[in-house]
Amino acid sequence: MATTEIRVAIAGLGTVGTAVIRLLQEEGARYREEVGVPLRLVAVLDRSHRRKDTSWLGPHVKMTDSLNEFLAAPSDIVVELIGGIDPADQIITTRQAWPMVVSVSCAHARTGPRSVAEVL
Hints:
This protein is of the alpha/beta class. Helix content is 35%, strand content 20%.
C-alpha cells in the first residue's frame, strides 16, 4: 500500500516547537512537492498546552500533556523538541521501533544518535 501522508508528532510547544509547526503549515505545499505526500501534524505533547492559545493548530491535532497518550498517537515521524533528559529519553527509547525519531535534546548523550540508515 502506498503512503498517502506522513503523520508527524511533535513533543514540545515552546519557541522551537511552535516554529517547526508554523513551518509545516506555511511550507506544506513545498514539502508535499518535495516529499511526494503531505506532512500532517497529528499530535503535540506539551505540559502547559492548556495555558497556551493552540486554536491555530486546528481541531484535528491531538494536544496532550500525557506522555502515554503521545506515545500511543499514530505517527510516522516524531520530532522531540523538549530539551533535557526526561521525558526526551523515554520518547526516544520507547519509540525506537518507529520509522523515524528526530531529537535535539541532551538525551542523545545517553542513548546515542541513530542514523536514518539504521532506522530504515
